[in-house]
Amino acid sequence: MSDPKRGKLVVISGPSGTGKTSICEGLLKTIPNARWSVSVTTRKRRGAEVDGVDYRFLDRAEYDRMVQANELLEHAEYLGHGYGTPRTPVDVALSRGETVIMEIDVQGGAQIASEMQDSVRIFVMPPSMPALKQRLAHRKTETPEAMEQRLAEAQREMEFAAESGCYTHFVTNEDLSAAIAEVIRIVKQESRL
Ligand code: 5GP
Asked: Is 2 among the domain residues?
């Protein structure tokens, strides 16, 4: 039986440009005791991102060391960069009864699905591929090549999420506030908050 005082782990996945980050922000504002899991990555800092807040930006040697030392709860390569979730902060927060929110890719979602079965794993879908393309173009943080890569990756991620059975819930982001409300409802229901 799961410990009723233990917190819930909430995984949010979905292609970039589907509003995952805004959904996570909505959860952090609304769910009592919610805590953001700060991932490590080898990719370069983008735009207004803050080291230690949005991600911990590491060089490849330090990232590889963390992987080898089993310091990451899950980790994956995404478009040539390493991404991973430090294990200790998640363990500490869950044992304090906090709700841990993590935004990770589908490879990480699959690892969490097999290792932490009582987690809530939500996959956020764009309403359509043209809508996703438009949102990524609007964001203007990517070069055209990087955008094409991300769109191809989005297609693969959606297929994997649908076929793998790793996700407990699917939410289509047609309207951002409705999608945020839906994810909040799911997390509250699953955590009995
Ligand atoms: P971005 O470079 O756009 O911030 O993130 C690229 C992808 O990596 C996104 O799908 C994001 O959810 C995922 N990601 C971010 N942090 C982690 C992590 O710690 N683990 C895994 N597996 N994926 C992550």
From this structure: no
